[in-house]
Amino acid sequence: MTVRPAVPDDLDAVVASAVGLFAEDAGTRDPLMDVSWPVREGHEYYGSAITDPDVLCLVAVSGDQVIGHLIGRLKRPNPTRPTVVGAELESVRVDPAHRGSGIGAELDAAFVEWARGRGVTEVSVHAFASNTSAIRFYEAHGYVPSSLQLNRDIT
Ligand SMILES: CC(C)(COP(=O)(O)OP(=O)(O)OC[C@H]1O[C@@H](n2cnc3c(N)ncnc32)[C@H](O)[C@@H]1OP(=O)(O)O)[C@@H](O)C(=O)NCCC(=O)NCCS
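Output (structure tokens, whole complex):
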């Protein structure tokens, strides 16, 4: 297994991994989530991510199979936290058959190395509160819970 930056030829596999992530994560946790978004828009969105210098698009590869992906993105400066240079771990997924063998850890380590190389001082990730296994994964890698978003339906 190797972790490497995605190239344009990986686009279909990155989109497929994102489709899987939406279906498994947001699709089971947020009834308002449009899980068909990556099917419709994924090629354009992730195609741009692969070539954007402010975005890290990684794939985990076994043989010629993509078995995981990670998207990381530099954040815009926030004047209310002027000393922070931030990057967001926007999405990460490992194929179910390959979980629990350190691939997620390798993807996260490569993201942190990329971020440090760009002067980033703080990396962040959003997770559904009910995604306890992903939260356990992040906490094991030094991420600490910060803000809590509360949604209220006012229809
Ligand atoms: C979170 C995820 C990327 C971790 O990848 P991974 O390759 O399984 O991670 P590692 O092997 O490096 O670490 C395993 C740890 O991840 C956590 N984990 C989360 N979901 C897991 C799963 N389904 N199977 C095994 N471990 C899982 C465990 O805490 C485990 O720690 P442990 O070994 O102490 O039990 C992966 O489980 C995944 O794709 N989950 C579904 C998608 C998702 O929720 N993404 C995050 C959205 S915020």
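The two ends are 48 Å apart (CA to CA).
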